[in-house]
User: What shape does this take?
Amino acid sequence: MKILLSLLISFAMLLSLPAKALTPSQAEDLAGLTAVFIYLKNDCGYQDLQNSRIEKAILLFAQSNRWDMSNYNIKEMAKLNKENYLDIKEIKLSENYKCTALARDSLSLLAYVK
Assistant: This one.
């Protein structure tokens, strides 16, 4: 849980700007990706993933989709991140299958950041 809070706080610091967030769909996608990385790190044995690389990957994802991050809302996104993380935890699949599928579909994004 400490890693989760650390990641949420450091990601929020990266994008700490006031006002309303992205479109609801974009915010949900961003929170979903953040939750996947948090889940991989906390629940799947990927503790060695550096928060800074995860933050860069999430930012790269948003930039590659040409999303305007200037009005990123920290509190709303932290809430969405947590909800998405809990949703992933509640998926009724074996941990091994869930971790393998999430890693396969998301870790490749880290190859684009240094």
